[in-house]
Each structure stands twice: as C-alpha cells, then as structure tokens.
Amino acid sequence: MNTITFTDLDSLLSRAEPYAQYTTVEFWNDPHVSQFLLQEHLNPASDLASRNHAFLDRSAEWIINEFGISARSSVLDLGCGPGLYTSRLAKTGAGITGIDASTRSIDYAKEQAAKNGLAVTYRNGNYLDCDYGGPFDLILMIFCDFCVLSPVQRAKLLRKIREALTPGGSFFFDVSSIQYYQNIREKLEIEFQEEGGFWSPERYYAFNQTFKYDDRNLLIDKYTILTGRETRQIHHHLQCYSIDMITHELEENGLTMHKTFSNAAGDKFEEESNEYAIIAVKDPL
Predict the structure, then answer these.
(1) Residue 72 DSSP code
(2) Hey, how many other C-beta atoms are within 10 angstroms of the C-beta on 8?
(3) Are residues 211 and 234 in the same domain?
(4) What are 85-108's pLDDT values in tens digits?
(5) Is 30 helix (H, G, I), strand (E, B) or coil?
C-alpha cells in the first residue's frame, strides 16, 4: 500500500532542481505510456508526440528540396520515433538511418519499413551514447528534442553530430524560442484517473507542475504520479533560445549557423515565432 503523508507530498511537490533528474528514456520506454505515445505518433491530427501528419508531409517535402536529397544522399534522423520522417525521406532512394530510444517506436518503424519495402536502417538506442555510423550529408533532430537535454548533454551531442557529418554537411533541428517561454505560466494541476489513463493502467493521481527559471530561459514540467503501489516522477526540461544563444552554443561545439526559419517546414523566419528551425553546417577543412 502506497501511503503518503502531508510532509511526503510537500516534498514531492517542491520546486524542481534543474537537470537533477533525466527521465526522458524512462518516459519513452515505459510499457504503458509508450503505447499511448505510439498511438499519438500515428494519429494524423495529433501534435502530442510528433507533429500532425499534414505538417510532416509539408516539412518532409521542404527538407527534400532544401537539401537536395537524392539517391546519392546519406541522412540520419535522431529521435526518429516510429519513422514518420525517415519513411517519407526514404522514398527518394537516399541512404536513411534512424535512431531512437523507444523500443516500441523502433519496432514499429522496422515493421513498416519491411512491409513497404523501404531501405531504412533503424537502431534502438540513446543518441547521446550510441555509435551513429556515417558519415552523413544531413542529420535531423526535429520536434525540439534538442531542448530537453542539459547543457552538458547538448555539448556532447553537438560534438558527436559534428564528427558524424561529412565536410560541409548540415545539421537541421528546431528549438523553442524565448517568445514561447514568455507565453508560459507556472502552474499546478491535479488529475485523477480511475483506470487506463495516460500514466498508468491502475487508478492514479497525477500532480502536473510547470516551473520557470528566468535566469536560464528554462521550463521544467514535473509530473508526480501516485498509484496504490508506487510513487514516481517524470521531469521534462525545455531550454528556450534566442538566435544569439543558439548561435553561440553551436559555435562553441564546432558548427556554424547557416539559415533560420520559423519552423521545420521552412517558413520565413519571424522572431516572434514560438519555435525556430535552424540549419547549422560543418565547415569544410
């Protein structure tokens, strides 16, 4: 029996310490939660686990044209999920590789590639640690995945990306903006589910908190889930950026800002956008 006192709850709901917990891989591989996330990935209208499929179609078409992807190209998608981008890009005949930490998503992506005759290489692993292979002409990281990492993790990732790119190769990714940060308010919401909710197949209470850290332009969503058997917490970090901030971070790790857009479909850059999409390049030696 999971018995919680007032003191316990007060401690559990305390202000989150930035980067004290990294629960991203745990979240995406939870046996129950990952079922819901895959359903959201595959829901054409949903923007929860990935962007809606109309946007994905527009984005993939723009990426193919912008980077001239062809049968001679090599592309790596970090955080590829169930293959929503990789399956679209593979139709060009390019050499496509996808890496994702979610076993459920990668299994689905492999099944769909085999079913549809798509030559995509999928790897189940944490892109912070696994070998990328390559080299690649283009590396993608879309849906603001870059923003959930700590400063140390981001620096490690950018160095790995630089090493895996061909000379003159591109890294295309998106980030949440300062404008997005300014629009968010701190909150505490309480959720109750009798059974079969997002967080657990059991009856549960969930305390959903958002914290802001103005000195870092950092958001943390902290989820505390209580069932009859256990208490667990998930922390989602979201670093928000100005263009100057991300330019500096790229340069510190050997990449150069090349182009900016308002989203991953290549819409014209506007500073007040909630997200920015960025092409960074590895300068030829």
Answers:
(1) T
(2) 12
(3) yes
(4) 999 999 999 999 999 999 999 999
(5) coil
**pTM tops 0.85, yes or no:** yes
Assigned domain for 96 exists: yes
- Measuring CA to CA, which residue among 75, 78, 63 is closest to residue 141? 78
Residues 6+ apart with CB under 8 A from 244: none
- Co-location of 63 and 137 in the same domain: yes
Helix 243-252 and helix 151-164: axis angle, to 10°? 60
Closest CA to 8 of 224, 258, 238: 224
Vertex 111 angle, CA 107 and 115, to 5°: 170
Q: At what angle do helices 33-42 and 103-116 cross, to 10 degrees?
A: 40
Domain that holds residue 116: 33-177+243-281
Residues 128, 258: one domain? yes
Q: Distances in Å between the alpha carbon of 228 and those of 2, 198, 205, 272?
A: 5, 16, 10, 45
**Do 42 and 155 fall into the same domain?**
yes
Q: What is the pLDDT of residues 219-242, one digit of tens each?
A: 999 999 999 999 999 999 999 999
